[in-house]
Amino acid sequence: MKTFEYQARDRKTGGKISGVIDAESEGRVAERLHEMGYLPVSVKSKNTVALSMEIRIPGISDRVSADDLATFSRQFATMISAGLPLVRSLVILSTQVENKTLATALVKIRQEIERGSSLSVALAMHPKIFDRLFVSMVRSGEVGGVLDRVLLDLATTLENAASIRRKIKSAMTYPVAVLILVVLILTAMLLFVVPQFKSIFASLHGTLPTPTLILLDISHIMVSYFLEVALVVALLIYLLRRYIRTEKGRIVKDKLVLKVPIFGKLLHKSAVVRFCRTLSSLVRSGVPLLEALDITKGTANNTRFESAISAMQNGVKQGVSLSTTMAQHDIFPPMVTQMVAVGEETGEVDTMLAKIGNFYAEQVEAMVASLSSLLEPVLIVVLGGVVGSMVISLYLPMFNVIKLIK
């Protein structure tokens, strides 16, 4: 099996297209192009040596973002609804998408479909790109014959999830930047500024105030054992990250995160949005409820939500309603539980979940919008207080400088 580059024209529109295809020979490539409704213009073997020279950075260049998947899903849905066959749609998309990793995956997916696999099975062969949520919704669309609608729902779900993540990141960026700035300023003062004052204080031969002595001792430790201190800090960070990756560490971390002032509420509401929208999309697409809950649990990213969703799964198996189980977990606000109960009574659980998700998404947006105006004065006070306390500690002996000189 070889890889060939081709250029062809669409017989219906006359448009020119190009791409890559795997086949035994150039003749086989031409046959496939004819089968897909294209008129071959040129076919040549792909230079695999040149491709091997391409620089790829694992985790960066190989990453397929939610925005990439959303764009692909929306374009794919448009082609399917227009009546284009799956294979032909994938050929066009593999030449249009900008992400090289996604383009390569689409070529392989198209090859699997040509061998007789279904679209969902072919997608499942690339779990790093298409997660269980994506594959399950596509499978339900295939079974129900509404693949184009499901793909549009997927695009909307991915876009909403990406939007929420961007809002959370924007809210966290400012305080994190200020924290890093405070650490850098403190380190610079302890390493370069405070030692200059130490020689001055030593020449005065007097008793220094307690805050000044503490500051001088910390500076001495930093200057004399900087490498050791850096290694200890790095080791503590490493051990903390290792602990967080354990089951017990995740539970402790998730509990503490939700209790952080302001940000805890923001993360809690964003998790509710993710839960409601994901479960709504899956139920609306026809995914069985138990499987939908299992997939939603995998996207929760919080052990408290995962535990609650597991309880909901067990309740459904025993014939208990979702709202009854949800009411037993305070992680779900009362409004969510009540609206789910109404949805179960009316047979519109997916609609109610979507409305709840939209409601809390608006609250997240409002919180993010107000955070910058709320945090800016607080962080300025914190920064000024930390730096100011160090400056005051250094200048306290100066208030008694005359007595020290005598």
UniProtKB/TrEMBL annotation:
Keywords: Cell inner membrane, Cell membrane, Membrane, Transmembrane, Transmembrane helix, Transport
Membrane topology, from the record: Multi-pass membrane protein
Occurrences of domain Type II secretion system protein GspF (ranges): 72-195, 275-397
GO biological process, alphabetically ordered: protein secretion by the type II secretion system
Principal cellular location given in the protein's record: membrane
A single Gene Ontology CC term: plasma membrane
Superkingdom per UniProt: Bacteria
Subcellular localization: Cell inner membrane; Cell membrane
PROSITE patterns assigned to the protein according to its UniProt record, in alphabetical order: T2SP_F (PS00874)
Pfam families noted in UniProt: T2SSF
InterPro entries per UniProt: GspF/PilC, T2SS_GspF/T4SS_PilC_CS, T2SS_GspF_dom, T2SS_GspF_sf
Residues spanning the membrane: 174-194, 214-240, 377-396
Family: Belongs to the GSP F family.
Identification of the protein by name: Type II secretion system protein F
